[in-house]
Here is the input.
Amino acid sequence: MTVQSPNSLRSYPDESGHFGQFGGRYVAETLMPLILDLEKEYRAARQDPAFQAQFDDLLKTFVGRPSPLYPAPRVTEHFRKLAPKGKGPKIYFKREDLNHTGAHKINNCIGQILLAMRMGKTKIIAETGAGQHGVATATVAARFGLPCTIFMGAKDVERQKPNVFRMKLLGAEVMPVTSGAETLKDAMNEALRHWVANVHDTFYIIGTAAGPHPYPELVRDFQSVIGTETRAQMLEAEGRLPDMLVAAVGGGSNAIGMFHPFLDDPEVAMVGIEAGGHGVDTDKHAASLTGGKPGILHGNKTYLLQDEDGQITEAHSISAGLDYPGLGPEHSWLHEAGRVRYVPITDSEALEAFQLCCALEGIIPALESAHALAALPQLTAEMDEDKLLVVNVSGRGDKDIFTVAEALGVEL
Amino acid sequence: MTRFANAFAKGPALVCFITAGDGDTASNLDALVAGGADVIELGMPFTDPMADGPAIQEANLRALARGTRTADIFRIATEFRQRHPNVPLVLMGYANPMTIRGPEWFADECAKAGVDGVICVDIPSEEDAELGPALREKGVSLIRLATPTTDAARLPAVLNGSSGFLYYVSVAGITGMQQAAQGSIEEAVARLKAASDIPVAVGFGVRTPEQAAAIAKVADGVVVGSAFVEIVKQHGDSAPGPLQDYTASLAEAVHSARINA
Ligand SMILES: Cc1ncc(COP(=O)(O)O)c(C=O)c1O
Here is the structure.
């Protein structure tokens, strides 16, 4: 472990699990002892070279890491042509889409299931929206032979049939959640309800860098392999650090995984992309930083979409993985600290970028990642040609082809 | 003597929960009091009631669908206090609606409305700063939950800063589902009472007068929630009659432990 200087941006959360005013442990008393246990066990695992070695080995042999840092020549060329003369940086893609199960989600699941086994837990639960985290969780549960239950909003079960079938093939039980709006937020509520009643033997694998402390920290740490690799790969390819990092922010795990190893390098700019849905001036979006305010939900204090009474409002995004009314607490803090800039991108901008990436690079990106790609027109126009920009392509878009076809009015 | 102290002084107390804005709340509250409720818990509806089972979840959503706002809840509380000067009133709910305008605002509204105590499901003692100091400053009790997972090492932290009564959640789980074994309740209550001098009320999964009577033999209070909420759902605007009858049957069971004690 590296020793952090006291004013490092990388030394958070503090001892009580807070990032400034954000984060914390807002859970029912029943869960509190377990959360404290998890933190203790996580600290011990971090000190244990055998734990780290097993994690690294699985990332290499099971997930297929390191994922490539790919210089995207035609996308670079495309935006250079559109930009004012002398502008348009060299664009790289961090290829998390090439991981086993098709997204960054698996990095975190490997880490958490190793923790679960370390704690002697024998059952796994998780929430999922689009089904990506559910598939990743079902995958590691199958790999280690632990029974696994995935909570998924009934509406999402209907919308994401292929992933539901994948999870079942992998041996998971999929529990459709019929409360509330029957989407990700409700799936998380139901997973928490199940967990409270089964704390003695059940481990909850949370899918993003959110929830009660220590989840935001440990998910970030497991996902930081993205940024750590990017750093080494960029130094090798270009002999210097990138000038800008861009990533989509749902709960924030792929973004914080990419950003965190660079937080103390002031020359590296970072942009997080929120889901702007039909536009942040409508009531159909999922941009919690741009359109929300701080509040408490699902165990942490963070920016949330809510009304003036603190009732949570429904999010909307064409991308199921970004369709959540909150985000991880570290992003709320980095936003207020001004270290990371957060920008909303609409459904239609994301759709356009999705098609552009397919056509120019031969890569079908996840709709989540397409949000990050869609920020390139505005970001590249301001950057000199000799600058380096990395987009985190957090996942592949095979799961999204039905959604995209429908949005484009194509019948399959 | 505070309203809480009064309510628990006579022997075991019946604590009744309903959700604000679900049905004719004022009439329903009057029915609970008329039936013999010693303490009232008024649920503040929230869009994401993570610690509640289906009955109370649905009550939350029904109340919100009818347009219940925080201001309505304080109006209900204020009018309750005018009609019932002596019955302790507790607001129970989740952190976000309680803290969204700042804890001082919430504590102030509670004090002005005559609310005696607050139960916040998702603020454990570790996050006390979010609400506790503001409530204590205004003389409103913060009622904490203790659970089967609250071990001896944690208990002092849970008790520190709490007042009114301690709410023992008898099962690790959500509201309205299982019922704990009587033996485990007795053991837990004995442990809690040894560590604290505030009354201990027991809830979660209590439905029948028989259960309530058994718990009243060992605890200072019995909390019933989902069963009331189900009556409100079933009878809608004509719920007061059945609520009062059901409360009376529970009150008789709980209060009989006073005489036999
Ligand atoms: C490919 C992909 N990218 C991004 C996300 C958003 O999550 P996070 O912000 O935690 O990376 C998801 C969530 O399902 C996803 O599947």
Remarks:
- The interface with chain B takes residues 16, 24-34, 179-180, 185-186, 189, 192-193, 196-200, 295-299, 301, 304, 306, 308-312 of chain A (CB under 8 Å).
- The pocket of pyridoxal-5'-phosphate is lined by residues A 103, 105, 129-130, 132-133, 208, 248-255, 321-322, 366, 368-369, 394-395 (CB under 6 Å).
